[in-house]
Write a structure and sequence with these properties.
two-stranded antiparallel sheet, alpha+beta, 3 helices
């Protein structure tokens, strides 16, 4: 079985980290993800996803991201169904975050929207390398279409 989800969107509200009864940091936040398809004459639609991060990952997100920041999260979908005191059933799905990445968005891009003041040109950290790398000013690390070459032949490609 496979249960993986990767989302990239903007954090919708100020982050508030909490502690579980066992002392683990817990961060619940929501991200807004624009749909890729837009019908002619209609506005682009947005989906909102609830994400939950624990421990050091929660502390990392709380430290380096703010409301309006673009974030990429990877994790698993979990159903969280419950019945309230009035016997009304509630159904929701959350993303349990087990990976987080910077998106390459520059701080100046966010400052123009007034959303965040965090200065970053970090490259997307992976789980194998620490997320606390020194900032890089290498434009190739951020990505540019001029950095890619078009391959006109598929000879030798194994798929």
């Amino acid at each position: 079985m496979l249960n993986r989800v990767i989302l990239m969107g903007r954090i919708t509200r100020d982050l508030e980290i909490r502690q579980s009864q066992g002392g683990t940091a817990v961060l619940r936040f929501s991200i807004a993800v624009d749909r890729s398809f837009t019908r002619q004459g209609e506005e682009r639609q947005t989906d909102f996803f609830t994400c939950v991060a624990f421990g050091q990952r929660a502390e990392f997100i709380n430290k380096y991201f703010r409301k309006g920041s673009m974030i990429a999260v990877e994790g698993q979908l979990r159903e969280n169904n419950y019945e309230d005191k009035n016997q009304v059933k509630h159904y929701n799905v959350e993303v349990i975050v087990d990976g987080v990445s910077f998106t390459g968005e520059r701080a100046s891009d966010r400052d123009n929207s007034g959303s965040s003041s965090y200065q970053s040109s970090y490259r997307q950290p992976t789980q194998q390398q620490p997320a606390y790398n020194e900032p890089t000013s290498n434009p190739i690390a951020i990505g540019n279409m001029d950095d890619f070459e078009e391959i006109l032949s598929d000879d030798g490609v194994p798929f």
